[in-house]
Amino acid sequence: MEYSDHHILNYDGTFDGFLTAIFIAYEEKLEHLTIQHSCTTTPQIFSNNQTIITHTSQANRVWKGLLNVTTPQQRAAIFKAFLSEIKGIEDLLFTFIKKLFAKEISPKDFSENTALRVAQIVKMVGREKHRMEAFVRFKLTKDHIYVATIEPDFNVLPLITSHFKDRYADQQWLIYDMKRAYGIFYDKNTTEIIALEDQEILLSNNALFASEELAFQKLWKTYYDGVNISSRKNNKLHLQHLPKRYWKYLTEKNPTL
Amino acid sequence: MSFDRIREKLSILADAAKYDVSCASSGGKRKNSNKGLGNNTGVGICHSYTEDGRCVSLLKILLTNHCIFDCAYCVTRKSNDIKRAAFKVQEVVDLTINFYRRNYIEGLFLSSGIFKNADYTMERLIQVAKKLRLEENYNGYIHLKSIPGASDELMRQAGLYADRLSVNIEIPTKSGLKLLAPDKKHEDFMKPMKKVKHEIIKYQSEKKVLKSTPTYAPAGQSTQMIIGATGESDRDIMYSANFFYKKYQMKRVYYSGYIPVLEDHRLPAIGTAVPIVREHRLYQTDWLMRFYGFSVQEIVNDTYPNLELDIDPKLGWALRHLELFPIDINKADKKMIARVPGIGMQSVYKIIQARKYRRLDWDHLRAMGIALNRAQYFITCYSKQFYSQDLTPLQLKTKIMSNSSSKYHNQFTNQLSLFN
Asked: What are the coiled-coil residue ranges (chain B) (predicted)?
């Protein structure tokens, strides 16, 4: 059969799971393969399907191997590109990692195809990370937690945690990714990942928030409207910087204020 | 506090401050080492954007719009009949902290109309900054306006709490200043600028010896000039800008297209279009001076006092110097590659790095994101194909413009849309 040597490795969507898949690929000397998140699996009759069980120890071995052949920037690039969750990212990264192990890519070679594609994706993820650092809008709850909801294009929450931890070191906060159904909570000491049973409560329940919260939202809206210079109106530029898909959680774009 | 009253004040005092274009929140590093509020990594963040596409990074307000001066170009001039308001020091502190904690802003940009006198006003601005730093344990960004004529001692204090200080020169020529702001003296603008410059140098050199020396205005100084209010040429503007960069080590000079807000026979009439394209070309020139190794005289001079509006200044310069081109992208030195129209500094870096590994051809250059629609006429690469036709500068300009679509295109085209 034509595809008999094509393997599909299904992993759990975690970074460790992905690295475990790479470990298996090397150990079993698999040449032609697709690594995919098990929830995206489409049955393919002519391939060998294999479910990867995440082993931290195996993942660590791959990572340790990478330590020897990569710069810190390249390792960060692998992680960031992975968080893009773009279809086929696992295969691109597998190719990238193979080339790194084979020493076929130099750190600053901007004209090699795989490296270029990875760099482009890293840039997209980086942009989304920066956007989230900008567009997070906290609301103060009655029990003194600053809560924000987001829906980023990529899974950037792990990348923005330290930024918010450093910046808001003296306040409790929660940033919740509504699309991926998890959030990061900071209790003035450490951060932890949490998942809420009913995440809609963050949006619907006004009784959750402190009494002066709405007043500050209105002040911010007043300010935002006030700084606009109508004789310079440039809607194209406005939307380029502030695409509509982000408006949902932006206080200044809330029409009810 | 009474939110309704605050809201009214905010609306008046934000409106009055919005013509100050500086929104930079970068450059000032302040680490959150004390478990306080705010951590400034030196990288700016634009938290939102107005409908005119400008970044909203700071809470940019006036402490008051009461003013004893009567500068013709200024919306808060004494003789203008507008609503006046004033914030209390604590009100500004509370607003800043509450906005910052909600991640609305990177910090505060506090300016003010001048009430009573320069020192009295400057003292109030410093009080706000001092309270934020010492009482609120706040490490976010603070930009204070240096009030023209403020004393040296106050300017020294201001820099201890602020990240950036700025004096807006507003009118690029002395004669223009005399005409439009008869109460203000040119020296009054220069005095605080000079003091701040000296303090920055002093603190920096002390810091080298003694690490515990406090930081002084780590994000430096900036200034702003109004464009198109007094008939000044682009050369006048850019020579002034160059002077401020060289003489006062300004971090930034901003250019603000004049927006007619008042009827005054000395100024463009209300309804006159804001010179947005010209402003853009001036910023491009500013970048060429600061990052691309151009001297100001290469771009504007006695022969070419004004920038061309329909093409960018680098292309304009290259068309005047066709004898220097084409250059070989695989051999030319960095400085020369930076002078090629359509190649930005990031691309320069990529080219220099990538050509170590292989000779670059058109596909490589395209993949790096170089604007070949302009660059192709000025370079050769690892390919037998390159542009070899001998064209006059004007012919080449016409060719480039017909092959590219400028976002300002419709402001220049004379053709009827029927034929497009």
From this structure: none
Helices (H), A171-212: 201-204
Tell me which of A36-50, B70-84, B101-115, B348-362 is least confident: A36-50
Which among B138, B4, B121, B120 has a CA at the least distance from the CA of B59?
B138
Contact B161/B196 with Cβ under 8 angstroms? no
Q: Does A147 lie in the same domain as A112?
A: no
Whether B360 and chain A come into contact, CB under 8 Å, resolves to yes
Q: Is residue A21 part of a domain?
A: yes
The pair of three-digit structure tokens given for residue A11, joined into one six-digit string: 């992993």
Judge if A91 and A148 occupy the same domain.
Answer: no
Is A1 part of any domain? no
Asked if A215 is an interface residue toward chain B (Cβ–Cβ < 8 A), one would say: yes
- Count of Cβ atoms closer than 10 Å to residue B273 Cβ: 13
CB pair distance less than 8 Å for A227 and B357:
no
From A166, A185, A186, select the one nearest B35 (Cα to Cα): A166
Sheet holding A32-37, edge to edge: A32-37, A6-11, A48-51
Residues A106 and A145 occupy one common structural domain: no
Residue A119: what residue type? Answer: A
Domain count, chain A: 2
Q: Could you tell me the residue range of the domain that residue A235 belongs to?
A: 136-253
> How far apart are the C-alpha atoms of B174 and B155, rounded to whole Å?
24
B155 pLDDT above the threshold of 70: yes
Q: Is B29 on the interface with A (CB under 8 A)?
A: no
Q: Do B53 and A134 touch (CB under 8 A)?
A: no
Residue A63, pLDDT score: 96
A-chain residue closest to B350, CA distance: A110
Asked if A88 and A175 sit in the same domain, the reply is no
Whether A140 and A227 map to the same domain: the answer is yes
For residues A222 and A202, state if they share a domain.
Answer: yes
Nearest CA in chain A to B98: A216
Complex confidence, ipTM: 0.91
pLDDT digits (tens, 9 = 90+) for B79-125: 999 999 999 999 999 999 999 999 999 999 999 999 899 999 999 99
Phi, psi of B249 (to 5 degrees): 45, 45
pLDDT in tens, A161-214: 999 999 999 999 999 999 999 999 999 999 999 999 999 889 877 789 999 999
Please list, residue by residue across A85-103, b when 16 or more beta carbons sit within 10 angstroms of its beta carbon and e when fewer do: beeebbebbbebbebbbee
Q: Are B347 and A98 in contact (CB under 8 A)?
A: no
Domain ranges, ordered by start, for chain B: 3-219, 322-419
Q: Which of A105, A127, A149 is the last residue of a domain?
A: A127
- A119 part of a folded domain: yes
Contact B350, B410 (CB under 8 A): no
Distance CA A214, CA B64 (A): 26
Which residues on neighbouring strands pair with residue B379, listed in sequence order? B327
Within an 8 Å CB–CB cutoff, is residue A53 touching chain B?
no
Q: Which residues are CB-contacts of A35 (< 8 A; sequence separation ≥ 6)?
A: A8, A9, A11, A18, A21, A22, A25, A90, A91, A94
Q: Is A189 helix (H, G, I), strand (E, B) or coil?
A: coil
Q: What is the mean pLDDT of residues B267-271?
A: 86
Q: Is residue A141 located within the same domain as residue A240?
A: yes
Give a yes or no: residue A186 inside a domain: yes
Domain end among A89, A107, A127: A127
Using alpha carbons, list the distances in angstroms from residue A157 to A166, A248, B103. Answer: 15, 18, 16
